[in-house]
Amino acid sequence: xxxxxxxxxxxxxEGLQTLLLGYSKTDYGARxxxxxxxxxxxxxxxxxxxxxxxxxxxxxxxxxxxxSSLLPEPVARWVMTRGSTGLPKVIPVTETHLSQILSVxxxxxxxxxxxRDPRVxxxxxxxxxxxxx
Length: 133
Description:
Radius of gyration: 17 Å
Order of helices and strands: HHHHHEEH
Structural class: mainly alpha
Shape: globular
Largest sheet: 2 strands, antiparallel
Number of helices: 6
């Protein structure tokens, strides 16, 4: 988000407003005044940088059925992160999040191929997913 904000305040602002709309529907977002944030700088000043461990109380509430503690809509799935910054972590995701991953993820790959290395589209991808319902 920092790089996006630096590259294009307009694009970052549009993306931020989309995120804030969702955050404002959560207890966590309400705590930091998400509905009243007007820009990127204000977002950074109000929302602290947190770790997974910091969010465990809210994740626990989501597990108990109170999704609005942290999410703007009910949990669609529980997924495991890759563990790129430590041990893999289990996180809740929504249908909106899953659809964004599919649409944005595809655009990221195509954009990378067009701007940097078209060979990225010629290789195989190993992606092991173990969804839980």
